[in-house]
Amino acid sequence: MASNDEGEDIGVIVGALFGVFVLVFGISMWKSTPAPVAPKASMAVAVAATVEPEIAPVGEALAKIYFAVGQSSLNESDKDAIARTMAALVLNPQSIVLLSGFHDTSGDAARNAELAKGRAVAVRDALIAGGIAADRVKFRKPESTLGTGSAEEGRRVEIRVQ
């Protein structure tokens, strides 16, 4: 029986050593595996955290562009305001242009905010098409007129070079 006990002891020792080897190998493989890539949604949160702070308007508007009801496209008559803005930016190479889109309080607030934003985007696109760098054009959140002034005042984009 002594010989059988020795054979069993060696089998147990070999089995234990094999188990330890597998455990150590498995842990080393697990530790060397790269961390999973963050989903795109998490990356969007990180990008959203770097959004620029709201820029306060300084001084009077250089120009105001008025829009027809429900419209966000520029007219031929708006070229003068775009040209004046471009000239001011050329004279002040370190300045930015701040665009503030407005809407009135009538109708759906979300739709009005989108329309005001679309109007400011139309002005931005005209400035960029004229050669102004996109990083020099900044936006303010759409603003609502509070029933003062004409209905036309609620359908405007104010342009400030600062």
Number of helix segments?
A: 4
Q: Which percent band covers the strand fraction?
A: 5-15%
Number of strands: 5
The biggest beta sheet reads: 5 strands, mixed
* C-alpha termini separation: 98 Å
**The CATH homology group name of the largest domain:** OmpA-like domain
Unreliable segments of 5+ consecutive residues: 35-51
- CA-atom Rg in angstroms: 33 Å
Give an account of the 3D structure.
The protein has helices at about 1-30, 40-50, 80-90, 110-130; strands at about 65, 95-105, 135-140, 145, 155-160. The chain is of the alpha/beta class. It folds into two domains: about 1-50; about 65-160, OmpA-like domain (60s Ribosomal Protein L30, Chain: A, 2-Layer Sandwich). Strands 1, 2, 3, 4 and 5 form a five-stranded mixed β-sheet that branches. The termini are far apart. The model is unreliable at about 35-50 (pLDDT under 50).
